[in-house]
Design a protein that fits this description.
With 474 residues, the chain is mostly beta strands. The protein has a single domain, classed as Porin (Beta Barrel). Helices cover 6% and strands 45% of the residues. The chain contains 2 helices and 21 strands. Strands 2-4-5-6-7-8-9-10-11-13-14-17-18-19-20-21 form a 16-stranded antiparallel β-barrel. Strands 15-16 form a two-stranded antiparallel sheet. A hairpin with a 5-residue loop joins β8 and β9. The longest helix has 26 residues.
């Protein structure tokens, strides 16, 4: 997204990390009157967006697309991809093993940032993003609020504005992830990610709440700057008020050292387990239960014929996302704009684990049943589920500002109670990127994901293939 996490982060591709968070589902009424109304609303949506796009087209091509004495910043993003990906033999859905190569649907974002005063800024991202929304079996092409909020420069409002210090309060959608220093892919907003996909353990999304972030620049010493941030949110991008639903929290700290070395620590905690009602056998259904949005991470652009484009099946699916916690440590060495080396290590765990109706602990949400058919769990029991993971990522420009190569390796081990042996998921990504100009990026990637039987992988055996994307941002 256009608006950063309010931490001191960077990517060798883009200076801004990316926030994301989604409103998951809409439906289309079969009633003819409702259909007419919906059509009129859709026409109005298109008309409004057309007007905004025409206004954006009149903006001078300066370093920022601004209007009204820099009171409004407008960015338009569009991306389309092409994939040739197959699931490995033994996948949960045999239809995924033989897929045709084809084009993806375009992804579109219109990002608006409003300078209300010198110390108050509002933002909204309007998107048509099938890998997140995927409405009505991917047939509904509709624009939605993808992200939005208001930020207050508290030091400025108190008359104590400083170039070296910043204290920001954000209300609205709070985007967060335990990883730092690397880009993230979110639909058409893909130019901050050196590769095409994210990682299967990128626990990123957005929820509703408040965030406080403090950054201080220290000058020419060994530590150039530091940041601390915390937030509290509900566990949904929508509005849900179930009894015993708790809040989710995050604490994050970052140190930026001279010479391009960076260190970050993150801790996430969800509190949703009190919603569960257990039967006599100790099994609880997830029907009507709100779980934390980051349990699977955000949608990727890999797609499979046997599932909708908004699925999260390329991510690991071990934890239900109830009393879920994540602890992650990140380090990076980015000595210049051409080189980036990043390492991340972490552990995610929950006080509950997926099970079958008999209360047997399962390695993840998806598995084979006794008859050999794909089974997706909707029950949990009180048992510790967990995954230990690490991620290594590198990017190097061979032609500065023009052509780069990049790679990422992810390893995740299922540490759920009662699960052992054949419990590792690994993903290898190798990619390149070529800037046709400063607004147009062509990326291509080879991806190979291997899922062992008890890994918690949701494809069932893994997948591999190539994918390419062409995107513009102006």
């Amino acid at each position: 997204m256009l608006f950063p996490f309010n931490v001191v982060c960077c990517s060798a591709v883009s200076a801004n990390p990316i926030e994301s968070g989604k409103l998951r589902s809409y439906s289309r009424s079969a009633d003819s009157l409702h259909t007419k109304i919906a059509n009129n609303v859709h026409i109005a949506q298109v008309s409004i967006l057309t007007c905004v796009m025409l206004v954006a087209g009149s903006v001078s091509h300066a370093s920022e697309n601004t209007l009204f004495d820099d009171r409004l910043e407008v960015n338009l993003l569009l991306m389309q991809g092409f994939q040739a990906i197959q699931a490995a033999d033994g996948a949960f859905r045999p239809g995924d093993e033989e897929q045709e190569s084809n084009f993806l649907r375009p992804r579109f974002n219109l990002q608006l940032k409003f300078k209300i005063t010198d110390n108050i800024v509002a933002d909204v991202d309007i998107a048509e993003e099938p890998n997140d929304f995927g409405n009505n079996g991917d047939r509904d092409f509709s624009f939605h609020q993808d992200f939005g909020g208001i930020e207050f420069n508290l030091l400025g409002l108190a008359g104590r504005a400083s170039e070296d210090k910043n204290l920001t309060l954000r209300i609205g959608n709070i985007g967060a992830a335990p990883f730092q220093f690397k880009g993230f892919q979110d639909g058409a907003d893909n130019q901050g990610n050196a590769l095409v996909g994210n990682s299967p353990v990128d626990y990123a999304t957005a929820e509703n709440g408040v965030q406080l972030s403090y950054t201080q620049t220290l000058g020419d010493g060994r530590i150039e700057s530091y940041n601390v941030a915390g937030h509290i949110t509900g566990s949904s991008f929508g509005e849900q008020f179930q009894e015993d639903r708790g809040f989710n929290g995050r604490l994050q700290g970052t140190l930026n050292f001279a010479g391009g070395f960076k260190v970050g620590v993150n801790f996430f905690q969800a509190d949703q387990g009190d919603q569960l009602n257990f039967d006599a056998g100790g099994v609880a259904s997830l029907d009507g239960v709100t779980t934390t949005n980051y349990r699977f991470g955000d949608g990727e652009n890999y797609n499979f014929s046997a599932s909708g484009s908004s699925s999260r099946e390329t991510h690991i699916g071990i934890m239900p996302g109830l009393d879920m916690s994540i602890a992650q440590f990140n380090i990076a060495y980015q000595p210049n704009a051409n080189t980036s080396l990043i390492a991340m290590i972490g552990r995610a765990e929950d006080d509950f684990a997926f099970s079958n109706a008999a209360g047997d602990v399962l390695p993840g949400i998806v598995s084979f049943d006794a008859a050999g058919n794909r089974f997706e769990s909707n029950e949990v029991v009180e048992a510790d589920s967990a995954v230990d993971f690490y991620v290594l990522e590198a990017q190097q420009y061979l032609v500065p500002g023009k052509f780069y190569v990049a790679g990422r390796f992810t390893s995740a081990t299922n540490d759920t109670d009662g699960v052992s042996g054949d419990d590792t998921l690994e993903r290898i990504q190798v990619a390149g990127g070529y800037w046709l100009n400063d607004k147009t990026l062509w990326k291509f990637e080879y991806v190979d994901q291997d899922e062992e039987a008890n890994s918690g992988g949701q494809i069932g055996a893994g997948f591999d293939g190539i994918i390419t994307e062409l995107s513009v941002k102006f």
